[in-house]
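Hi all, posting the design record for the shared folder.

TITLE: backbone redesign
STEP: 1 of 1
STRUCTURE INPUT:
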């Protein structure tokens, strides 16, 4: 673990303790809270750092409540409940969603259901035990249960996406104009939120909350022009303003703060969930339009290939034959090396034409019901030998997947192209992981290397014919792979960071 990574972990944990302490302090003085931010941050930390950090979350919560005057037994119960909520949320998210938390509508809905709604039930059970042991709450058990559970729900739905989107989308680059625009939008939203939550609109804060939907136009702008990271950041700012507003009001007016909390909890959860879902819809549509544009480019190149590639091959074959004849003459013995170089370059040109033909739109597919796992197993010795030759290795993990209609030769070509690119991207001792599994009724084929990653701004260009980052590359290998995927109605997704790149090919089995 690097020095920089250690600092990040320490920062996460210090922030978690401070948020937990401030939340405990707030709930001590006001007796309830709009959101419990520690619940969302605990889940985010476990999803990022892993399960091994649960003791720190547990003890941070326990000490936060003890320092705020809570008895040790109640502090232990609350800490245990919060920790188990984070663990159960992490388990459900990893099992049901995986690493793409908010990329699709289905994943957003699953996150809200499993992490946001179901996992806080664990903490609520422990909260009931603490209430039985003497936690004061003036409005009865059921109101206590509902507000506690809703605060946990709001904390997870608002704060977990904030942490996860910043970690996953930390390479988003803005120009100067877009930064100014977002800052101006943030100031407008903060000002509007202040007017709403502090009762500046209407006779009192509860009446003012009827105007909270004035924030929706700002969110529509955010959804269309910005990423989920900015949506989560904005909602967190609105939540902070709402929390401090209830703090000021709740000390003097308990009845008002109860109504304010319930209304604010519902609104914040609703607006965050809706914004994430709409943002996923926009992202999916943009991705679809990018795929359509890419396929159109591939089809154009394919039509060009079909029209003149065959005509090029004939004269090239003739030239190669005559060069070979000349090289075998005794008087040309001294020029043997030159002729060998010429023949190698002609063969390279021929291989480029072969790849070019693979882009053709109207290729006839020999579709047969096959299992990708068997194709990988047949190719594995060849791929492993190539990897060992360059002091690298390949690890395969094949899941239980069904057979479906595919062209075996094309899928072999696709696999070999990705393996070749991945091996070339890695340094010595690098490991390429190839895996298959089922997700959302799709067969997913994954190639994960240990290279230096692909710059974020270049990822949309991948699969474009003749685009390459290699010194001697043709820019056709990935284009061919994308074309093969398109002919099989498959979708290729790319994730990259400084340590690895992952290509996922999702097939719809028929």
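Okay, here is what came back for every position:
SEQUENCE:
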């Amino acid at each position: 673990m690097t020095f920089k990574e250690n600092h990040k972990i320490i920062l996460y944990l210090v922030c978690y303790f401070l948020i937990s302490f401030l939340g405990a302090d707030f709930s001590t003085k006001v007796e309830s809270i709009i959101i419990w931010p520690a619940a969302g941050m605990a889940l985010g930390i476990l999803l990022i750092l892993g399960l091994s950090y649960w003791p720190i979350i547990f003890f941070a919560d326990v000490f936060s409540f003890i320092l705020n005057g809570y008895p040790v037994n109640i502090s232990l119960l609350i800490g245990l409940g919060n920790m188990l909520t984070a663990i159960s949320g992490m388990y459900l998210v990893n099992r049901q969603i995986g690493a793409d938390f908010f990329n699709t509508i289905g994943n957003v809905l699953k996150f809200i259901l499993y992490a946001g709604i179901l996992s806080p039930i664990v903490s609520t059970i422990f909260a009931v035990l603490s209430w039985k042991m003497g936690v004061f709450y003036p409005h009865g058990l059921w109101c206590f249960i509902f507000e506690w559970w809703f605060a946990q729900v709001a904390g997870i739905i608002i704060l977990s996406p904030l942490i996860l989107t910043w970690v996953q989308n930390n390479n988003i680059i803005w120009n100067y104009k877009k930064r100014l625009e977002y800052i101006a939008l943030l100031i407008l939203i903060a000002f509007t939120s202040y007017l709403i939550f502090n009762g500046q609109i209407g006779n009192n804060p509860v009446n003012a909350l009827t105007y909270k939907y004035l924030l929706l136009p700002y969110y529509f702008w955010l959804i269309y022009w910005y990423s989920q990271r900015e949506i989560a950041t904005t909602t967190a700012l609105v939540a902070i303003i709402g929390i401090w507003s209830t703090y000021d009001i709740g000390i003097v007016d308990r009845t008002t703060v109860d109504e304010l909390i319930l209304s604010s909890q519902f609104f914040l959860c609703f607006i965050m969930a809706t914004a994430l879902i709409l943002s996923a819809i926009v992202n999916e549509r943009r991705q679809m339009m990018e795929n359509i544009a890419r396929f159109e480019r591939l089809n154009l190149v394919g039509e060009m290939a079909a029209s003149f590639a065959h005509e090029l091959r004939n004269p090239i074959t003739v030239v190669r034959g005559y060069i070979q004849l000349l090289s075998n003459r005794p008087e040309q013995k001294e020029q043997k090396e030159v002729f060998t170089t010429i023949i190698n370059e002609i063969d390279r040109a021929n291989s480029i034409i072969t790849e070019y033909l693979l882009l053709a739109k109207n290729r006839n597919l020999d579709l047969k019901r096959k299992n990708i796992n068997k194709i990988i197993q047949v190719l594995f010795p060849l791929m492993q030998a190539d990897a060992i030759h360059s002091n690298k290795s390949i690890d395969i993990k094949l899941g239980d997947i069904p057979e479906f209609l595919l062209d075996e030769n094309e899928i072999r070509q696709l696999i070999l192209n990705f393996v070749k690119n991945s091996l070339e991207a890695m340094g010595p001792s690098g490991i390429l992981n190839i895996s298959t599994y089922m997700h959302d009724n799709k067969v997913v084929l994954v190639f994960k290397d240990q290279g230096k990653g692909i710059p974020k701004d270049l990822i949309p260009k991948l699969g474009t014919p003749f685009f390459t980052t290699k010194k001697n590359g043709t820019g056709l290998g990935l284009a061919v792979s994308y074309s093969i995927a398109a002919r099989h109605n498959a979708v290729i997704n790319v994730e990259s960071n400084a340590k690895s790149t992952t290509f996922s090919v999702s097939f719809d089995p028929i």
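COMMENT: Strands lie at 367-370, 393-398, 404-407, 431-439, 442-449, 491-496, 501-507.
Let me know if anyone wants the other runs.
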